[in-house]
């Protein structure tokens, strides 16, 4: 999703503490969504979705795969998006990978309907990603590519992200049942509606 510039007039830059709490909370929310999705065999988009495809296909843990998939994008982000964005994104990805690895050891879900998981997970994903975007961070690969293409080519970041997400969801048909893909689409709708309603340029003056 597009991010406002810290040079915009009237914008107050966040303090390091504010950045830290937002990145921690945002990645925690996203990790909870991924745990819900993993519990019932759902999918999401972006690099997390690519990690899910490989996780379902190979059995390798989601946290490890998510961290590894994002490695090639750090140099690209440093060159194109700047040091601050890249460092915050690295911290967010590392935290999310750790949460995805360790959180299942701290609590268990005995019963969970996939429709409920899809909607709750979508809202958690939307709010978590919004926290990160407002503090100039992301969850890696797909977002970095989308933002770069918007800056360099004028392609709408939302449309690029949607194309990536649709491709990943199509690939997921090879590793999860079609009904779980349908529930995953429901989760994507919930996430994008939340972002569309709450992420409006000019509504919030703080970066």
Plain-language structure description:
- The protein has helices at 16-40, 46-58, 62-70, 73-81, 83-102, 114-134, 141-153, 157-172, 178-198.
- Helix content is 71%, strand content 0%.
- The chain is mainly alpha-helical.
- The radius of gyration is 16 Å and the shape is globular.
TL;DR?
It is built from nine helices and no strands.
Structural class: mainly alpha
> Strand fraction band?
under 5%
Q: Termini, distance in Å?
A: 14 Å
Biggest β-sheet description: none
Share of residues in helices: over 70%
Any chance you could write out the topology, listing elements then pairs?
Layout: H1 16-40, H2 46-58, H3 62-70, H4 73-81, H5 83-102, H6 114-134, H7 141-153, H8 157-172, H9 178-198
């Amino acid at each position: 999703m597009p991010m406002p510039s810290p040079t915009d007039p009237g914008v107050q830059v966040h303090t390091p503490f504010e950045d830290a709490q937002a990145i921690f909370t945002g990645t925690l929310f996203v990790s909870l969504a991924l745990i819900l999705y993993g519990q019932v065999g759902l999918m999401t988009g972006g690099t997390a979705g690519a990690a899910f495809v490989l996780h379902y296909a190979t059995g390798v843990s989601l946290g490890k795969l998510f961290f590894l998939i994002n490695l090639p994008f750090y140099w690209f982000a440093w060159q194109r998006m700047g040091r601050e964005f890249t460092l915050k994104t690295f911290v967010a990805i590392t935290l999310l990978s750790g949460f995805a690895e360790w959180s299942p050891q701290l609590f268990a879900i005995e019963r969970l309907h996939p429709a409920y998981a899809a909607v709750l997970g979508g809202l958690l994903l939307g709010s978590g990603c919004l926290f990160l975007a407002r503090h100039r961070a992301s969850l890696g690969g797909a977002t970095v590519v989308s933002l770069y293409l918007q800056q360099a080519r004028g392609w709408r970041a939302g449309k690029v992200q949607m194309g990536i997400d649709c491709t990943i969801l199509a690939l997921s048909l090879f590793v999860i049942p079609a009904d779980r893909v349908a529930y995953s689409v429901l989760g994507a709708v919930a996430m994008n509606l939340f972002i569309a309603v709450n992420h409006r340029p000019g509504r919030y003056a703080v970066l």
